[in-house]
Amino acid sequence: MADMDLPTAPAVVQALKRRAEGDLGYPTWLDSPGGGPLAEAFAERMASRYGWRAAPEYVRAYTDVNQALQVLLHVWTRPGDGVAVHTPTYHPFLATLEDMERPLRPVQFRPDGDSWRFEVPDLAGCRVLLLVNPHNPTGRVFTRQELEELAEHAERHDLLVIADEIHADLTYAPHEHIPFATLLPERTVTLTSATKAFNLGGIRCSVAHVGVPELREALDAQPPFLYGSANLFGAEATVAAWRHGDAWLEETRALLDRNRKLIAARVPETVGYRVPQATYLAWLDYGRPGMAEVLERENKVLLSDGAAFGPGGEHHVRLNFATTEAILTEILDRLWP
After folding, report:
1. CB 328 within 8 A of CB 282
2. Residue 36 falls within a domain, yes or no?
3. Any idea of the CA torsion for 321, 231, 242, 222, to the nearest 10 degrees?
4. Is residue 284 a part of any domain in this protein?
5. 3-class SS at 285?
6. Can you give the pTM of this predicted structure?
């Protein structure tokens, strides 16, 4: 439903084997809030791939991006503070907002030709802009002009920007990922992980680059292990992926590129599909609600119900196409015989 159905990158497997066969004692970086080697590897990757000179000392390590989001909301906001999010959106984030009593302020995506557009509503009463870029579930990659518009709203309303950029490495040419922190460095927290691009969801490891000085102080004032810490194998796998996994990533992204186009070639006219600019997720519009249940029962294909993704998702299902071309072909044969 959310992970790749593909083998793990050899560089990651080799790194984990070396660690398992070697020292499994406490790492020297145990007390480091940035997860030791994670911070440097993150900064290196941001510089080499996106031209962003991230500060390693601003990095904090967490188990996943949703945990990091909850920690940030806990220390920076209070119940009742609004959070602006482009909708439909990643459904665990919606659950977090509901559980923490931070009202959702939808920034609605609407179909626009072969892509999507949005208009920013009045953000008065919001404390946070939660930006998912590249976007899940639509696969939209925000343009520089759009990011600059959002930056203006963040400045105008004094918003903390939490940018979930976990799918950045899965952006397809000619589209380009632009880290939001390059626009508003001292107002932005960047969340990311190797888990999506390198198929490592089970390692439970992510990073937050906290560009906001006051927020870093608030986080550092918390008891050091209150929110957990990076685990040894998670850090090992992440560093290996970011430093040595790009050959595997390029091959995988080429496969995903072919798969997104295969769906476009097979989708019937009665189903809406805008080819994603990033991610391995196809956002399919069936024009009526409840289709995930129907397709599972009648076509024997398990898809994510779009209703879970909030406003604008009711008529959709989400298809994960991170699998082999043969298996994807079987899925499409079942969906559209």
Report:
1. no
2. no
3. 100
4. yes
5. strand
6. 0.96
